[in-house]
Amino acid sequence: MKKKVLAITAILLLVGSQSAEAVTKVTVENSKKISAKNGLVTFKVSNLPKSNGIYISQCMAIKEGEVKPPACNPAKTSKLWISDVPADIAMGAKSSKSKLTMKVDKYFTKGDCVHTKCIFYITNDHNAPTDRSEDQAIQFKFSGINLF
Asked: pTM for the full model?
């Protein structure tokens, strides 16, 4: 009986770890030196899912033991919807082949990216809301501000 439980546990861990690895590659071109004046960030995205897109949001860093950020910037300029699905592009998504820029803020409602750590939080879009396989967190900081 113990061997069966161990075997099932090992299989579940293996399956869980494989599905947790994001397929989409998101690169932040200036993640270590974002201008504190204009807050513009440029992204490159490759290997998007075929049937859905991704969201990128400016958020507070995920706390240990948590799976989602405690707060994200509510400003529309601090969010991106990226998809290569034609229907999504017709509804306002940006193609992965287009210029992808976002404006991030030093401070936002329930957020402080000067005195604490902030991230770009990547998730699958509304076409795959329960699929966590694309979840990623990329830390960033503003240039000239070195508090952590």
From this structure: 0.80
Separation CA 40–CA 75 (nearest Å): 14
SS3 per residue for 50-118: CCCCEEEEEEECCCCCCCCCCCECCCHHHEEEECCCHHHHHCCCECCCCCEEEECCCEECCEECCCCCE
Average predicted confidence (pLDDT) for the chain: 85
Single-letter residue type at 135: D
- Cα 37 from Cα 110, distance rounded (Å): 21
CA distance 106 to 40: 11
Fold of 22-140: Immunoglobulin-like (2.60.40)
Phi-psi region of 26 (alpha: psi -120 to 50; beta: other; left: phi over 0): beta
Alpha helices in the chain (DSSP H): 2-19, 86-90
Read off the tokens for 63.
């706390």
Residue 100 above 60 pLDDT? yes
Q: What is the model's pLDDT at position 145?
A: 56
Q: What residues are paired with 58 via a beta bridge? A: 120
User: What is the amino acid identity at position 141?
Assistant: K
